[in-house]
Structures are given as C-alpha cells and as structure tokens.
Amino acid sequence: xxxxxxxxxxQRAVVDIYPNAKCSENFMRVAHQVLQWPIPxxxxxxxQFFWRKLLAxxxxxxxxxxxxxxxxxxxxxx
Length: 78
Prior knowledge:
By secondary structure, this protein is mainly α. 54% of the residues lie in helices and 0% in strands. The radius of gyration is 15 Å and the shape is elongated.
C-alpha cells in the first residue's frame, strides 16, 4: 500500500494520516478484533502477563465502539 510507505516516510501512523487507506482499515479491523479477545483471568506465563497489561490499558477508539461501515475481519481476508 503506497499510503503505508508515505506514512512511514513521515514517521506517522498510517491510521492517523490516511484513515481511509485500505491498510488503515485493515489495521483498525485487526485492532478491533484483538480488543474483543477475552482477557485470561489466570495468566500462565510472561507473554500472557504482557498481553493482559497491554490490553487492560488499551485506549484505541476501536475499543469504544465498532467501526462504522467496516466489516469484521474474516479468516479468508486475513
């Protein structure tokens, strides 16, 4: 995606400066789905502790409400 290259060259997040780019929509779709994952109540290792802490402090707008007009990511499009 050319918009991703432009965002990298500007050292900015593609979802911030080109929110309608295909890659931005895909990043937001994935982020929204990750935020829907259940948080384990009993982490078993350091990676699970990392994810629990990361997701507990998430402030992504996708956590507040689903993306309007953007379908959930399916296994076929991943």
